[in-house]
């Protein structure tokens, strides 16, 4: 469907009694505006002090930004807007495919590994991490393994490639005793893990999400920052 020639003009009165006119073109022409809607325009095309245009090539419309949408849901909307909305409205035990399941396990093991300290007495290796999965994670994942028709040996074979990469990254960039504290590509060095699964949100654009790992780093200029 070609949205390029869709057009909608809206006049809005804002306090103190200032009249603004917006032309919504292309994808934005079907935006469901109503009296009382909270509206934010980001980088619209400015025609005059009172007239603005948003179209497929320029500008973003944010409606009701206080209704926070998960980042992952927003990304799903790039491929299917109906799927993104339905997934958010009807939450439940959705199906998981093999790739997602393995990704979730690797994600959990990475977060588990970077939080180790010298008191744990652990010597990080792919084999050690795999054994931790067997003892601490697998019991809670058996149901999904059965649903995906995966045996423990099959899953361990799939995980082995990712665990080697995980251990290598931690060994290079994490501070002692886990790693060698090498510089990241940006030149910063990790000092410690500040948080795991930190909640973030932004009412400006109406999104929310979680940061896998928040890192306390020291930059090249010796500044200490918290970075995702």
TrEMBL record:
Its cofactor is [4Fe-4S] cluster. InterPro entries: Cas4_exonuclease (IPR051827), DNA_replication_fac_Dna2_N (IPR014808). GO terms for molecular function: ATP binding; helicase activity; hydrolase activity; iron-sulfur cluster binding; metal ion binding; nuclease activity. Residues 26-217 form the DNA replication factor Dna2 N-terminal domain. The keyword Lipoprotein does not apply. Pfam families: Dna2. This is DNA replication ATP-dependent helicase/nuclease DNA2 (inferred by orthology to a human protein). The lineage of its organism: Eukaryota, Metazoa, Ecdysozoa, Nematoda, Chromadorea.
């Amino acid at each position: 469907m070609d949205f390029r020639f869709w057009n909608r003009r809206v006049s809005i009165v804002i306090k103190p009694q200032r009249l603004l006119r917006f032309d919504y073109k292309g994808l934005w022409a079907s935006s469901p505006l109503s009296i009382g809607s909270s509206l934010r325009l980001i980088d619209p095309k400015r025609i005059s002090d009172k007239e603005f245009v948003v179209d497929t090539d320029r500008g973003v419309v944010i409606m009701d930004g206080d209704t926070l949408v998960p980042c992952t849901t927003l990304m799903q909307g790039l491929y299917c807007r109906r799927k993104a909305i339905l997934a958010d409205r009807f939450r439940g035990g959705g199906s998981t495919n093999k790739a997602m399941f393995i990704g979730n396990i690797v994600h959990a093991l990475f977060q588990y590994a970077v939080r180790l300290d010298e008191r744990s007495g652990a010597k990080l290796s792919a084999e050690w991490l795999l054994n931790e999965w067997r003892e601490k994670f697998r019991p809670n994942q058996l149901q999904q393994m059965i649903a995906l028709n995966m045996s423990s040996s099959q899953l361990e074979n799939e995980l082995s490639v990712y665990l080697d990469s995980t251990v290598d990254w931690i060994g290079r960039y994490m501070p002692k005793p886990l790693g060698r504290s090498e510089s990241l590509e940006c030149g910063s060095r990790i000092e410690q893990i500040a948080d795991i699964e930190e909640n973030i949100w932004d009412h400006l654009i109406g999104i929310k999400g979680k940061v896998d790992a928040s890192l306390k780093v020291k930059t090249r200029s010796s500044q200490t920052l918290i970075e995702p």
